[in-house]
Amino acid sequence: MPTTLPAFADVTTSDSALRRFLHGLPGVDAVGLEARAAALGTRSIKTTAKAFAIDLAISMIDLTTLEGADTPGKVRALCAKGANPDPTDRTAPRTAAICVYPDMAGIAHEALAGTGIKVASVATAFPAGRAALPVKLADTRDAVAAGADEIDMVIDRGAFLAGRYLDTFELIKAVKEACVRPDGTAARLKVIFETGELSTYDNIRRASWIGMMAGADFIKTSTGKVGVNATPANTLLMLEAVRDFRAQTGVQIGVKPAGGIRTTKDALKFLVLVNETVGEDWLDNHWFRFGASSLLNDLLMQRQKLSTGRYSGPDYVTVD
Asked: Which of 206, 285, 263 is nearest to 238 (CA)?
């Protein structure tokens, strides 16, 4: 898709024009949003449907390691786990991607060759985003050159919260352009808002529209590095945004909740949100992902329980 859609060319010419557009979006009914998210979270999924949903959730995971102590060996082990999550059951689906820091993207690219699993790399001075633009763009280009199929960037929350919406838009646009390889192909871009720092639901809606207008392929809740990360309510709000954006433009954008999603019960609640808000078009790992590290183990344990009738426990899955 083009970096800026023609439908939004006029509203992205100046800060004042963009502000008028963003502040003209409908205000978020916080009580209603949270009540709907809570109500959808009570839906029960049983037997065959649950087995399908567990496999779907596994296939949507961006299996993640973003620690200062990451080593090439740890990244290779995580890649092996993503490619073969349950060594006792080869029918277990592979994860969607392995998400690492830029300096580990080459290691992951080599380890995942031939698996079909994507290499996702964080970039733009993740997680705080406190760096000059040339540094952020170099960070992105290095990851793409090393073999990253997807880039998870962070916005400058300081700029956004100060009302510098056009700066936020231009940053995303510049990173989108940096995702393009010399051969013309491009890494897909996930834009992280760090919703826990945006303070209000109205801000989350505005950030979602900035990201989509600037060329995001995915909008993502969080880095997983702050106190409040993905919640059913903020994810529901972002799903509503991509639904409305497609209705207006015909362009489909993915959604990635990340941080704090640890159990099968949590994951199934999010899948219900997807199904009831945007429908089956998004129930695919090309359009919906979970950013997680420990979630996979719980999904595997629940999967084993469904197939054997016994709960194996954490000793029967590999430690990340």
From this structure: 206
